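Lab meeting prep.
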Amino acid sequence: MDVVRRVRRAAGGAKTGHAGTLDPLATGVVICCLGSATRQVETLMGLTKVYQTQVDLSAFTPTDDREGDRDEVTVDDPPDQRVVRAALDQLVGSIQQTPPNYSAVHVGGRRAYKLARSGQPVSLQPRTVRVDCVDLLAYSWPLLTLRITCGRGTYIRSMARDLGRLLGTGGHLASLRRLSVGPYDLSVAVDWSRLDRSILQVDLKPHRAGVAL
């Protein structure tokens, strides 16, 4: 992961780990741990995350985001906001979710995205994830903006895809930004460009370091 390599270099080669990656499309908060704090990674990965995303309902893509080729879906009567909200309600709670084929999930010892990129079939099983809240911030067909609060292992790309299936439309991510991980949000993060210089003590939080892309 580029951010981990940059943090390690900025920290003078110190042992570095991360508490949850971001998709290539995404921006926002990544928690990086240095030195002995890497022992906290597993605990930090369990913290609640908050995202803001824009979903495009006019097409599906194989990657479930805008980086994949569009498979356009013709919708003669776009769903209104009431219908969209009802569909979003079905994606809240303890739900079954199938990860994207282009994801880091292991399949037979290999990453799913590596199989997908090589043209091999990918068969992923649904798993239980926790979605605490989905707020509809804006909607103008075919784009809607959502704020999502969720637990570990939740794929926002899968939520976009599944929302499209529920609505009978398309569904993929047009943008994604992680606003916070637990108590750490963008206000306490180190900007990506800051990693061009050495990390200082003032950049660190106790046993943790937040990095904003």
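Slide two material, second protein:
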Amino acid sequence: MRKQKIWIALALVLVIGAPLFSTGSRQTQTSKRTVSFALWDEVQYPVFQEIVKKFTAETGINVDLQLTPWGQYWTKLDAAASAGNAADVIWMNIFLPKYADAGIIEPIEPYFVKDKLDKSDWSKAMVDLYTYKGSLYTMPKGMDVVVVAYNKAIFDKYGVAYPREGWTWQDFRRIGGELRDKIKSGGGSEYPALMELDYQPSYLQFWLQDGVVPFSPTATTTQISRPEATKAFDDVLALIDENILPSFTVLSDTKGTDLFISGRGAMLFVGSWKSVVLDNASFASRIGLIPMPSRSVSNVCALGGISYAMNARAADKDAAWQLIKYLGGETSNRLQAEGRIEIPAYLKAQQYYIPSFKNIDPTAFITQSRSATVYPNHNKFVEIYSPMEDTAVEIFSKRKTSAQGLKDLAAVIDGILKQ
């Protein structure tokens, strides 16, 4: 997930507006209420400028909008929270348990109850994701899913039928093999399939589709040493060995999405966070989208996404809640949907998402979101993620077998979970 790609390093700290994460709700010299709001995505920043402008016009509450790039966001948040001057409203992701346990954010469940909001107005998977210790902690914002994009021009060029909804992993492999053979016999250089071998776009989904939940919020052990977990990696390695996927070196040097957008791949496992990239491609009108193929259990998708959290030390919690409620409502979500930002978690606003695209048909994103499950989470996730990604590199580069790599990883994760 673009917003859940955990350790992307950015060289510069870009802060637009007030100083990073400072200060909380306050009264200005003109006695107007102000609430501060921290986010990390410069692409979404202009849309949120428009949203908070409308919020201020409707409520009279000013918003101090604070942008910090992803690479510095969490470090700055931790420092600001320790100093007691974190923003009142904070973008949050699956790191939520860490900040909830530390008392940095507080549940919004009581505010939902007070204002008689109906949780069923938001995606259940997102509500479940941001419910912690029996209480809804944050307001769901948008959803990330993974689907398969395919280049119709390449399929047509080599006379291969397009994939059809309801397909299986075996179908995917068969189609990839047919493309490989026809590309070779036709003297072409396109790749039959592409994939970004990171946690969310690939092996997390395959684990879940094979019935493997790597950990739960209360787990003290992991399931990833099970044979089903090993199979997910072995299946990807088989695709590489069979020349359906490029080599690990190619996929390491160039992102699968970039290869696809350059016209070099027929199929791509792709996150919905890349939807604008697909819609702006030179051959966008020839891109098809389809839900992922089913593996041994299902084609379920781990639904990720952002939410809005309230600083437990906000000076004006009523103003902070009014902003959170507005951000989670129809006007805010409509503007985000029309900006092709992400699939709204607020169900009534999903109607605005599909018509906002100029070239691709994003219906598959919505379809995939309906076969979603809660993103596996734990308050130790920050510590777990890096060893998982390091192990994936060791396996895909064949420095370790899948069985050995996941056995070693399971021992590391079990140690972390039991701390």
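Talking points for slide two:
Confidence is low (pLDDT under 50) at residues 1-20, 22-31.
The radius of gyration is 22 Å.
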